[in-house]
Amino acid sequence: MELLANLAHGFSVAVTPTNILLCLIGALVGTLIGVLPGIGPIATIAMLLPITYKLDPTGALIMLAGIYYGAQYGGSTTAILVNLPGESSSVVTAIDGHQMAKKGRAGAALAIAAIGSFIAGTFGTILVAALGKPLTAVAQAFGPADYFSLMVLGLVCAIVLASGSVLKAIAMIFLGLLLSTIGTDLETGEQRMTFGFLPLADGIEFVTLAMGMFGFAEILRNLENQESRDLVQQKVTNLMPTKADMMEAAPAVARGTLLGSILGILPGGGAVLAAFGAYTLEKKLSKRPQEFGKGAIRGVAGPESANNAAAQTSFIPLLTLGIPPNAVMAVMVGAMTIHGIVPGPQIMTKQPDLFWGLIASMWIGNLMLVIINLPLVGLWVRLLRVPYRMLFPAILFFCAIGVYSINNQPFDVVLTAFFGLMGYLLIKLGFEPAPMLVAFVLGKIMEEKLRQAMLLSRGDPWTFVDFSRHPISTVLIVVSVALLALAITPALRKKRDQVFVED
Amino acid sequence: MIAKPPGGSARSIQDIAGGAFLVAIAALALYLVNHLPASGRVGFASGTAPRLFAYGLMALGAWIMISGIFKEGPSIGSLNWRGLATILGSVLIFAIGIRVVGLALIGVPMVVLASLADKQFRAVEALYFGVGMTAFCGLLFPTVLGQPIPLWPPFLDMTPGKPTAIIVQAIAGGVVLAALIYAARRVVQSRKGN
Asked: CA of A249: how far to CAs of A76, A254, A256, A286, A474, in Å?
């Protein structure tokens, strides 16, 4: 089977000493930031991007991917032990996980979370491998108009699945699109909104935006809400769950895996949405819903499997279609671009090493995490005792140097500070910056495709819904409009209680 | 946290301010691209996309603002002025200082200033931490990662072997060592005290 041959090739790439080391570093760093509240995957990936410059693209992506799914593992540790979700998708785990810990069953909770995550990760990896070829083939059939419409659908999904006001999410998307136009116009070479600053001629450096809005703004926000830490003091013993626990958790793991896999691929979805969705699902399906909130093991197994599955499958749209389904993947697009990789269907054909090596290393990373994490629990917990007043200057310093090292331009650092201020203000005004980041990354591609499509159609804007010439595009636009209309309908607004925040 | 101004109807100050903020940004953008053509031969020109997005943003901002007048919502809440000044300030002095005095000299001021953002600021601790972080990053980035980060001011001749280089590095090494020793002693003391 060709799939097996490709996977074997991928493993041969992933199992080199360098790549294994990078995978390990990424996974551990990911767990670390998952454990520490106040810094999330987006800020970390953006922060570590400059460090990956000297690495080859495959190695860099392996490490950065490790951070994402590592964070899912780490977040659950603090959620269970300290009731402090280190990471948004672990918020749900904290509900029942911490209750289990209080009853002395922390070990079982941690173990089920880890095992469930591993099973989900394995399934997710297989899915990525299996769907790679068919989706890439589909993408080859896409013309500029179809691509544009697909991205429109992606943005609409991001709005629909976002939390809070639909209106504000759309506004953030437009802001992101607007920011993406700053720089030199592709076709005419004219300067757009650059204030005559030379460093802006290439547009806003993506890391600057990400670190400013997600790193600095987040630090500013955290300083305002100093949380107390409700540490479970008793030693975590008995790491093995009982057979009854495993039997109980198994269906939840299966459901969580499936749900997470689907939601990961969906634009606007991701680990956070998957976790919340799985919890709700488990509670609805349970014969004893009153147990939830008091230490139901399914309330841990489901969300943990879901968030890890989603973390894996969210790579699918990125690696096949070249479209980031959520803010974290948008950062990955930035990483790829910096390393000279153009995201899109050609990755699979032109850089099979990268594609299959990345997939193989995702599974290896999951394996490493499940083996390493449980013994290291004590270490992670001890790290939590580091007061925030020492953490955030370190983060700040690291970020500043990282931004500077991109172009050796102090201006970039100043710009990051500016975006930190902007991000903080936006949060204060009730906006979420995540849709803006996705729109910023998509904006450049979208404008390019839009202009290409208009060129091909000689200026006819109706070409996007011209069924005879662009059937795919028509369908996509129709679905987008329908979704948007549904989102605005009040009846469905009540059902929208999902969180888009990917920090 | 519902804003009910005395004698007035309930309004969402957050929405009004937020909408106004967006409208202002959109207006600025439109002003900046005014000189670019809005449409060309095939309908698209360099100014089309920015205008589209700016108008869209303005419309949305206006909508948010207007709907904010008619519905209840939170007020903005207090801004973290201390945090803003210290954190953004520290990043700015880093930006200015990195080329003027180099990483080794700007590191400690930056970290100390940033640490002031937290109300639980402890000066000595921040100093030790600053020295440690600067040393760590000063070794990590240029040496391990190969990034050309300026460590010292340009007027100091730091080519290896020159007297200035030796003296400066010896002093720096001494400071770092002293900081490590003192910090370690404090940690041990505080452990004994518990």
From this structure: 16, 9, 10, 12, 43
